[in-house]
What we know:
The protein is an alpha/beta fold. The chain has 3 domains: 10-257, HUPs (Rossmann fold); 269-334 and 467-552, Glutamyl-trna Synthetase, Domain 2 (Glutamyl-tRNA Synthetase, domain 2, Orthogonal Bundle); 346-462, CATH 2.40.240.10. The protein has 14 helices and 27 strands. α4 (75-87) links the parallel β2 and β3. α3 (41-56) crosses α12 and α12 packs across α13 (323-334). Adenosine-5'-triphosphate is lined by residues 32-34, 42-43, 45-46, 228-229, 259-260, 267-269.
Amino acid sequence: MENKTSSSNFIKNIVAEDLKEGRVQEIATRFPPEPNGYLHIGHAKSICLNFELADDFKGRTNLRFDDTNPVKEDTEYVESIQEDVRWLGFDWEELRFASDYFEELYDRAVLLIKKGKAYVCDLSAEQMREMRGTLTQPGQDSPYRSRSVEENLDLFARMRAGEFPDGAKVLRAKIDMASPNINLRDPVLYRISHAHHHRTGDAWCIYPMYDYAHPISDAIEGITHSICTLEFADHRPLYDWAIAECEMAAVPRQYEFARLNVTNTVMSKRKLKLLVDENVVDGWDDPRMPTISGLRRKGFTPESIRAFCREIGVAKAYSVVDERMLEHFIREDLKLKALRTMAVLQPLKVVITNYPEGQTELLEAENNAENEEMGKRQIPFSREIYIEQDDFMENPPAKYFRLFPGNEVRLKHAYFITCQEVIKDEAGNVVELRCTYDPETKSGSGFNARKVKGTIHWVEASQAVPADFRLFEPLITNEAEEEDKPFLECINPNSQVVQSGFVEPNMKGIAGGEKFQFFRHGYFNVDPKDSTADKLVFNRIVSMKSSFDPSKA
Ligand code: ATP
Ligand code: MG
């Protein structure tokens, strides 16, 4: 990441300066999503930036839906976006919609026409593109550019009245077809679209373009700092033009920052929507999705996402953030909060032959070895337990310290056991182990007559609670995307693997959204949708350890 100390937030310096110089009295920002999909981690960066900036300077932030493209928009998205912003921990001053301003936007467009600053153009989209010129060649004037004010007023009113079909006419700004900035070559301000709008219904059949609606909406709301991503830097002269020519009382200013990109993470709403529509994932909130709702369902906390956004900072230079950075922050957040329990993901039955039949004892276990305040719990132990299949090898390599024939290991929170016999099925698969335990070695008894190198986890068999564990990998890898293959052919077939095993009996009935650290397996979240009283379902948020050091990123 470039220039950590000062890049941490260059916009903050601008705001501080503006307040000091008296250019603004109170700062106002807005988060302006288009309700055409669910929010993703990239949006989280923009949300944190806008809300925290205003908070830092005792200003205000609006949530404004940029709903000027009815064909793609939906109230489902309007609702999910509000839920996600709130969940991240932010509260907007006012909830607004660009569609609230359709009447005023129309009136200001009429003003532009009256001032000779806009005209109705009959060129097709194709013709307009051809006449726009290139970076090295100026564009050509539209033959409709010289229409009179009266004619333009009449045509624009008839566009609104629904007299023309989609695409027949547009309203264009009259700026400069020879401008070195192509955005200023008479950009389209209004288009005809006979589409039903999720809020205004069929009241309108002309809709303002982003480049026109956005600056005017900002000005109407008295936004002082309008923050957007870098692609809009070239649009800034048009932003300023619209505010000046529409004679807006308030004059917001636009600032651009680099959008967030994360390794192995799809960050385009269009592609995410494709994954949903093609049923590659279980909806927008599938735990593999980089959406806020997907991250929430996977088990990320608002704190971890906000800490991540703070750490990556706000820069002008394009960069790609390592996905392990986000994982680092959820580990940090849960380290002292999550209950540490034992789960067996791929069970292998162990019978402890010298443990009395029919006996169960309760062993004491600390809930979080690094946080005493979390107290202790009791876990049952008896003659039959499950261990992890991986924790046994019949013919181990050197330095394998877990269970193998004749070897002794420690059972976490319990006793030392020694593997005496291996039971196999007809196909030769190991199906059960016979072990002996040493009653002297009970955990907490201070036993130190001999040491063992391996400690493994386990769950008592008769009371074990069945559970499914979902383990994730990236949905798609960046490497795969670079191969120029169609996006949907780049899906990682192992993006979700489900294992069926057991958790401790005291986990029975836990609620969706509860988070745990499973000894050696990592952090898991109870899936809020699929987990039931009969079958718990856990999503792995992140594995235990990573070599990743954010201070070196
Ligand atoms: P997409 O390209 O995924 O459709 P978008 O930019 O069109 O995203 P909007 O709903 O218009 O989506 O975005 C709302 C706000 O979030 C905008 O101000 C935009 O700049 C910001 N934003 C979107 N993606 C990112 C990102 N990856 N990093 C930072 N900010 C982002
Ligand atoms: Mg956008």
